[in-house]
Design goal:
Shape of chain A: globular
Oligomer: heterodimer
Largest interface: A-B, 35 and 41 residues
Strand order of the largest sheet of chain B: 5-4-3-2-1-9-8-7-6
CATH class of chain B: Alpha Beta
Structural class of chain B: alpha/beta
Number of domains of chain B: 1
Number of helices of chain A: 17
Largest sheet of chain A: 7 strands, mixed
CATH superfamily of chain B: Aldolase class I
CATH architecture of chain B: Alpha-Beta Barrel
Distance between the termini of chain B: 26 Å
Shape of chain B: globular
Strand content of chain B: 5-15%
Radius of gyration of chain B: 17 Å
Largest sheet of chain B: 9 strands, parallel
Helix content of chain B: 40-55%
Radius of gyration of chain A: 20 Å
Structural class of chain A: alpha/beta
Number of helices of chain B: 12
């Protein structure tokens, strides 16, 4: 059944931008697979989001804060020296690393926090893995004067002491999650539980394009500013659309943000890059689209990493932000429909790209973004010198220098 | 007539309320789960709810989540859960068994195969926590063919057309989640429960069970007065965890706790 759907999607789709349907489905994926207690809160959120997303006042306030608080638009930077060294396509980097708090995550937290304010919720909660989304949420909570609770796996708290302290400085309460693998997925479970219990005054700011409807669509919409800007900047600076887009995919919010405004430009190839960790063949990776299969987790149907009995398996990769066993349902659908290609690069390849960009362009990229850069470095040499690749530099790498140092046996 | 229907009919004729204990399959071990099921029925359980362990039990509180983790670390898988029911059925033909779990382990096996295996070993109904009616049409058809009831949850925020729809498609009984929150939560407002149950009763003649937050005989009695069945989970699972080192003591403790609930429910009527 999925096979025939696949064909129909590809051949007959007039637009790839019409998803999700009314019930939050992206083809076979997405939906709302949650306990009955969450159905009410999700309907309330969906209603509010529908009401405000086209509201001129809401849009104006969102845009105002993106400009004056986040620092948008972010530049589209021509990495000339790196392009020359690779000897092929011209590489342009979408500089989300220059945003306030250092990553694309804030585009979404500004949007959701403003929505929370309009819905009269005084308390926001979030889950976080590496701490980037937690910091972005704590930041906007401080900015809008809201109480903020961040759930974080106990294991991740150990690994990301600096971000934990940043969140506390910003006034957030960081709650360690001791259950399961003590990482991102467990933090997400815990945040859901908080939301179910405190829904009257609480807004759950999910950090990626996963979760039950309307989160995948809403988080995508708030991040689509990345792709809209990049598309216009490319036309203005180069005079044409790029040949290829490249972005890393964990949950997939920076990637869908870049991809979505280009989905109907069919001449633009789209590559989502997953974390192959120690290599797909070793089983130690975080690449559900490359090596997993469809299932249901965290409220949506999507590709998952699971064992033969459907238990979710642990992920492995050097970048905490990609360490998630699922992926946003729209990516699952874009994969099946053939509109986007999903590939993977190993820890070693990502680290190489991390060093290359740092030394050649003077930009320290996040390890997550380094996955996109590593794949860019693979395809650029095979392309013409006048071809354009837009790679999403989704975050800056300052947070990762301890990880890189440790990996190379250096004590700071 | 299904076991569940027969069970509720018999209770009704005797003017009694159903007591539905929940334990997690494989916690503390496969063998002990079967033994505990018999202990529960001997102590007055009318229906047994058996948790199918899952790695990410989003709707459960810490007590049941830890039970799931213990079961999984024992190596419990879906086929083991079926074996437990099969073994229980060898000695008990009449007590309905309801499996409660999450969708992913079912999807991975396939709806048809799962339903067939469940029916073969004598499972009577399923509660799939993360499968609301909006997403359940396809599996619902399969379950119907195998005469397995799908028990739906209703929460304080289930209203209007959604509530009508659930009452329309539900079979077996309805499970009212008495609190906002997860399993094992605090505070229960019996008056609010009663009001909601009255609303539900105006839409269906199915028996109404109430769960989430029932932790002692007094609450069980209060809730039993306004419902047809009470479900007890976390309070029971907590006692299993407490006596994990001593199986005999565990069985005694479980038995006496359930007897106290049974006695409380028998006060009604």
């Amino acid at each position: 059944m999925i096979e025939t759907n696949k064909k129909r999607d590809t051949l007959e789709m007039e637009s790839f931008k019409t998803m999700p349907d009314k019930r939050g489905h992206f083809g076979h994926y997405g939906g709302r697979f949650v306990s009955e207690t969450l159905m009410g809160p999700l309907e309330e959120l969906e209603k509010a989001y529908k009401k405000y997303k086209n509201d001129p006042d809401f849009i104006a306030e969102y845009k105002h804060d993106l400009k004056h608080y986040v620092g948008r638009p972010s530049p589209l930077y021509h990495a000339e020296r790196w392009s020359k060294q690779l000897g092929g396509a011209q590489i342009y980097l979408k500089r989300e690393d220059l945003n306030h708090t250092g990553a694309h995550k804030i585009n979404n937290t500004v949007g959701q926090a403003l929505l929370a304010k309009l819905m009269g919720k005084r308390r926001v909660i979030a889950e976080t893995g590496a701490g980037q989304h937690g910091v972005a949420t704590a930041t906007v909570a401080a900015r809008y004067g809201m109480e903020c609770i961040v759930y974080m796996g106990a294991e991740d708290i150990q690994r990301q002491a600096m971000n934990v302290f940043r969140m506390k400085l910003l006034g957030a309460i960081v709650v360690p999650v001791e259950a399961g693998s003590k990482t991102l997925k467990d933090a997400l479970n815990e945040a859901m539980r908080d939301w179910v219990t405190n829904v009257d005054d609480t807004f759950y700011i999910i950090g990626t394009v996963a979760g039950p409807h309307p989160y995948p669509a809403m988080v995508r919409d708030f991040n689509a500013i990345v792709g809209s800007e990049a598309r216009q900047q490319c036309l203005d600076q180069v005079g044409c659309l790029p040949e290829a887009l490249v972005a890393c995919v964990g949950g997939g919010s920076n990637a869908i943000g870049l991809f979505h405004p280009f989905l109907d430009d069919r001449e633009v190839s789209i590559y989502g890059v997953e974390a192959a960790g120690e290599g797909i063949e070793t089983g130690h990776h975080a690449a559900p689209l490359s090596a997993g299969k469809p299932g249901v987790l965290h409220g949506n149907r999507t590709y998952l990493m699971e064992d033969e009995y459907g238990q979710i398996t642990e992920t492995h990769c050097i970048s905490a932000g990609l360490d998630y066993p699922g992926v946003g349902p729209e990516h699952a659908w874009l994969k099946d429909s053939g509109r986007a290609k999903y590939v993977s690069v190993t820890d070693t390849e990502a680290l190489q790209a991390f060093h290359d960009l740092t030394r050649i362009e003077g930009i320290i990229p996040a390890l997550e973004s380094s996955h996109a850069l590593a794949y860019t470095a693979k395809i650029a040499p095979k392309m013409n010198k006048d071809a354009i690749i837009v790679a999403n530099l989704s975050g800056r790498g300052d947070k990762d220098i301890h990880t890189v140092a440790a990996h190379e046996g250096i004590t700071l | 007539m299904s076991r569940i229907e027969a069970c509720f009919n018999a209770l009704k004729n005797n003017n009694k309320k159903a007591l539905i204990p929940f334990i997690t399959a494989g916690d503390p071990s496969l063998d002990m789960t079967v033994e505990l099921m018999h202990v529960l029925t001997e102590a007055g359980a009318d229906i047994i709810e058996l948790g199918v362990p899952f790695s990410d039990p989003m709707a459960d509180g810490p007590v049941i989540q830890r039970a799931s983790e213990r079961a999984l670390s024992n190596g419990t898988n879906t086929d083991d859960v079926f074996s437990i029911v099969e073994e229980f059925r060898a000695k008990n033909e009449s007590t309905p068994v309801v499996l409660m779990g999450y969708l992913n382990p079912i999807e991975v096996m396939g709806y048809e195969i799962f339903a067939k295996k469940a029916a073969n070993v004598g499972v009577d109904a399923l509660i799939i926590v993360d499968l609301p009616p909006e997403e359940s049409a396809e599996f619902g058809e399969v379950l119907k063919r195998y005469c397995i009831d799908q028990i739906f949850l209703i929460s304080p925020t289930t209203q209007g057309r959604r509530l009508d729809r659930i009452c329309e498609i539900a079979t077996g009984f309805l499970y009212y989640v008495s609190l906002k929150g997860v399993t094992g939560s605090n505070q229960l407002d019996v008056k609010a429960v009663e009001d909601k149950l009255n609303e539900i009763r105006s839409k269906t003649s199915l028996p109404l069970g109430v769960g989430f937050g029932i932790k002692d005989p007094q609450i069980a009695e209060d809730v039993g007065r306004v419902s047809d069945a009470v479900v007890v989970g976390s309070a029971l699972v907590e006692r299993i965890a407490e006596h994990a080192e001593n199986n005999d003591k565990m069985k005694l403790e479980i038995s006496s706790f359930l007897c106290s609930l049974r006695a409380a429910l028998n006060n009604i009527g």
